[in-house]
Amino acid sequence: MLRRSASTTSIRHVSKETLTILLILSIRRFGTPVIKSLNTFIHNNSLVTYVIGPTIFPVVGNLVNVWLSLKRFKCHHRVWQNWAKKYGKILGLRLGLVDVVIVFGKKYIKEVLARDVFDGRPDGYFYTMRSFGKKIGIVFSDGTTWTKTRRAVLKHLRNFGYGSRSMENNICEEVKAIVDLRKLDAGRPVVVNHVFDVAIVNIMWKLVAGKRYDLKDNKLKHICDLITKSFQLVDMSGGILTFLPFLRHIMPDFIGYSELKLIHHNIYTFIQETINEHRATLDVSKPRDLIDAFLIDIMQQKEDSFTEEELQVICRDLLEAGVETVSNTAAFMLLHIVRNPDVQKQLQDEIDSAIELSRYPTLGDRSRMIYTEAVILETLRISSVAAVGIPHMAREDARLGDYVIRKGTFLLLAIHDLHNGAQWKNPQEFNPARFITTEGNLIQSDMLMPFGTGKRRCIGEGLARSELFLFLTYILQSFNLKIPNGDPIPSTEPVDGVSLSAKEFRVIFEPRR
Ligand code: HEM
């Protein structure tokens, strides 16, 4: 848990009277009952107290407050935002049995992302449940397992074309398929929230498993639906399964444990089948993709080689990390475009002048398409789907600002708040021009960090940005997007979850020529 350092000077012996005065002061200052003040104690020769946050109750901690506030604010990130106004930029909560700190503002967010001591991942049940009860894979592992896995994954992905021209070709192949499909239902309303899902999996799966699925493939659509469901069952803090994990034995259906268990089972069945197909046709002298490369590594049985369970979790991480984030961002991007016809017009003008009619867009066009890039940045800002990033964990007791954060505390980063706070002019307005200088150059703001920064920075940033650019330009080169007659203007209000998503909305794809 987080504690406030009341003094940086060395205080080995604090008299009872001094403690009483401090106790009274803290009650008056924070307006909270005795529980918080009792937490005053000596740490590394400094007098420290628990960080400011809502009153903590036994066993449930702040869970009841969260539950009540959610009724009003709908999304977790808004609840944290509201409390931060009252308690400050380093907000301390106890959620069930777990200490959680939510960090606000560029200065503290950057500090957390920059320091090794904060680069752990939480041990909570929700996170380890998806990886056979272990801290393995890339997204939710830490320490040497994480460094080893991240290095190996990046090496193998690059060997099979990650970040190269062949990956661009894969994205183009997928977006052409999307455009062809939309031409078939042109003029009719389409629910667009998940139109990119299968294409996004295909782009990653080509590198991971050397495989492509038809955009209408039911099996893959089902896997994508399961991922969406699992992302909507909890928020990024890990939910009740992390905070009161024993409840899974008492009310497994009510807290979503049974459903999540089934989802994990189905996703791993799909991954295991793919790995088995690879093993049956493996040629050790000619690895075809990331799965082959890891299988060869496993067969060689080196001291630090990976296990098959690790390979399964790596595949799952790559499958999930990219799908919901990019798909939800792309859906929000279309949503902002149909809400703002002037933005759509400017985008199409830029596409038409930068790209000859006879050809499709390429990533090489990006440097000349400043407005398009600004629309992508503005979407990543205003609809930050990774609202609190991916939780970090303090690996040791460590100081942050005026506080000491105890080993094991979860840290959530208020990225959505950073992107939508008062430091932006009219933050609620979708205005790509805010990212363009008067000379017409793109502004790279250091207040925009949708992919995090530092050692744990998202490994899919380049891919995500390329996908968003090609999705957007291909679609607007071919279609005008319209809200169907009679449908309401789609709401920008997000649906809560591990990744924020847009509420269901429909769009008509009207062919341009
Ligand atoms: C718009 C799309 C995306 C957004 C907004 C996004 C955002 C993020 C964020 C905020 C983090 C956490 C950084 C941290 O812990 O400090 C992250 C991590 C990660 N992302 Fe993404 N991401 C996106 C797309 C992708 C894609 C396409 C991939 C596919 C390769 C991917 C793979 C990962 C992985 C593997 C990690 C874990 C890195 C680690 O823990 O070392 N992401 N992402």
TrEMBL record:
<dbReference type="GO" id="GO:0005506">
    <property type="term" value="F:iron ion binding"/>
</dbReference>
<dbReference type="Pfam" id="PF00067">
    <property type="entry name" value="p450"/>
</dbReference>
<dbReference type="InterPro" id="IPR036396">
    <property type="entry name" value="Cyt_P450_sf"/>
</dbReference>
<dbReference type="GO" id="GO:0008395">
    <property type="term" value="F:steroid hydroxylase activity"/>
</dbReference>
<keyword id="KW-0472">Membrane</keyword>
<keyword id="KW-0560">Oxidoreductase</keyword>
<feature type="transmembrane region" description="Helical">
    <location>
        <begin position="47"/>
        <end position="70"/>
    </location>
</feature>
<protein>
    <recommendedName>
        <fullName>Cytochrome P450</fullName>
    </recommendedName>
</protein>
<dbReference type="GO" id="GO:0006082">
    <property type="term" value="P:organic acid metabolic process"/>
</dbReference>
<keyword id="KW-1133">Transmembrane helix</keyword>
<keyword id="KW-0408">Iron</keyword>
<keyword id="KW-0503">Monooxygenase</keyword>
<dbReference type="GO" id="GO:0006805">
    <property type="term" value="P:xenobiotic metabolic process"/>
</dbReference>
<dbReference type="InterPro" id="IPR050182">
    <property type="entry name" value="Cytochrome_P450_fam2"/>
</dbReference>
<dbReference type="InterPro" id="IPR017972">
    <property type="entry name" value="Cyt_P450_CS"/>
</dbReference>
<keyword id="KW-0812">Transmembrane</keyword>
<dbReference type="InterPro" id="IPR001128">
    <property type="entry name" value="Cyt_P450"/>
</dbReference>
<dbReference type="GO" id="GO:0020037">
    <property type="term" value="F:heme binding"/>
</dbReference>
<dbReference type="GO" id="GO:0005737">
    <property type="term" value="C:cytoplasm"/>
</dbReference>
<keyword id="KW-0479">Metal-binding</keyword>
<dbReference type="GO" id="GO:0016712">
    <property type="term" value="F:oxidoreductase activity, acting on paired donors, with incorporation or reduction of molecular oxygen, reduced flavin or flavoprotein as one donor, and incorporation of one atom of oxygen"/>
</dbReference>
<feature type="binding site" description="axial binding residue">
    <location>
        <position position="458"/>
    </location>
    <ligand>
        <name>heme</name>
    </ligand>
</feature>
<comment type="similarity">
    <text>Belongs to the cytochrome P450 family.</text>
</comment>
<dbReference type="InterPro" id="IPR002401">
    <property type="entry name" value="Cyt_P450_E_grp-I"/>
</dbReference>
<keyword id="KW-0349">Heme</keyword>
